[in-house]
Amino acid sequence: MSRPRVVLMANNIDEVGGAQRVVHVVAQHLGLRGYSVDLVGIAPHEPRHEYVADPAFRRFTLMPEPWPAPPSASGLTARLSPADRRINAQRARLRAVAIDRLAEVLADGPPGIVVTSQLWAMEHLADVPHGNWAVMGQYHSSFEAAAAGRDLPRALALYADVDLFTLLTPEDAERFRQAGLNNTQWLPNPLAFWPDEPVVAAGEDGTGVVTYLGRLSVEKGPRFLVEAWGLIADRHPGWRLRFVGSGPEEADLRARVAALPVGSDRVEFLPPVSDAESELRRAGILALPSLTEGLPLALAEAMAMGLPCVATDCSAGVRLLARDGEAARIVPRAEPGALGEALSRLMGSTTERAVLGERARSAVSDYRADLVIDRWEQLFAAMLR
To answer: Nearest-CA neighbor of 142 among 179, 192, 191, 115?
Structure first.
């Protein structure tokens, strides 16, 4: 069977982030396997990050400028301020440009398979004629997160008629099926790297680094990690806490750290990194204090490195990666005390860190990119049968 053309769409393909890394990994591996791949971002993002030095795919960004923030008011246009009306007009113009540009990309070659990795991308595809294309829709968070906000009704409407709708875990695929979608399948994200050798646990007993790797935003729960650190820092004077990332909560987090009675001098804030592997090699433990997740890439990558990890029970994806606590410690979300105690136990034992790290690496071996891309190809063949 000849390989179909693949158009892989995401909200943006330029930002330093987990979703962006995933679509680049998928695009590159499919391209190297002989597929004609177009990677399409809806809106640009500055600064633009280059994930692949020698891409085996073409890349496009549909909008000529960033998508503006929503207007400050809502309701009838007549009630909006002049500034809000300008924002709405700018959004309408950019969306029209994006729709036209997407139609051009689809027409620039034979029809094949379109993959919309996010809901906003699917909303744009829905406005472009694509009847000759097979469509794989994706959702990269959990059913629980979708049901808690407005994503569930959007997903049910957008993905009802696509050829395949993939979720990150079997549990999420089943819950979306129960909600009314009969075209669900589970497909995990591929790891961006698989080290030949696991990382050596940083430091001897009494020294090391607890690392947080991700966006500094409310849903990621970094403030609970600060609170947990405040409860245990005096027990482990040789350990440090490192936040790697940026986001709207950074100023608040810095203020919370400054107010800690102990341990504030051992907390670092570093900007986002494009090379997660190098940063994880400096870590002793990864902490994931999130309130909501899908199949968290930071957790999977840390486990691939053989790092011991502590994560909150915030999604089916966390439970799947952690094998319900066997391969990574799982604690209740939004409970700094439980998070702190789990971290403290690992911080106090080189042996326990080594045992958990070995289990972690074994648990995520099936998420190596070559194995996950095999599954992509199997799904493509089924869609086109």
So the answer is: 179
- The separation between CA 309 and the C-alpha centre of its own chain, rounded to angstroms, equals 17
CATH assignment of the domain containing 235: 3.40.50.2000
Q: Which residues of 299-320 are buried (b: 16+ CB within 10 A; e: fewer)?
A: bbbbbbbbbbbbbbbbbbbbbb
What is the model's pLDDT at position 202? 47
Regions of the chain with pLDDT less than 50: 202-203
Domain span at 37: 6-190+368-383
- Contact assessment for residue 321 and residue 299, using Cβ atoms and an 8 Å cutoff: yes
Cα dihedral across residues 167, 367, 373, 108: positive or negative: positive
Does residue 186 sit in the same domain as residue 232? Answer: no
> What residues form DSSP beta bridges with 41?
10, 61
User: Which segments of 192-274 are extended strands (E)?
Assistant: 208-213, 239-244, 267-270
Residue 165: closest CA among 128, 130, 140, 132:
140
Nearest of 229, 254, 255 to residue 310 by alpha carbon: 229
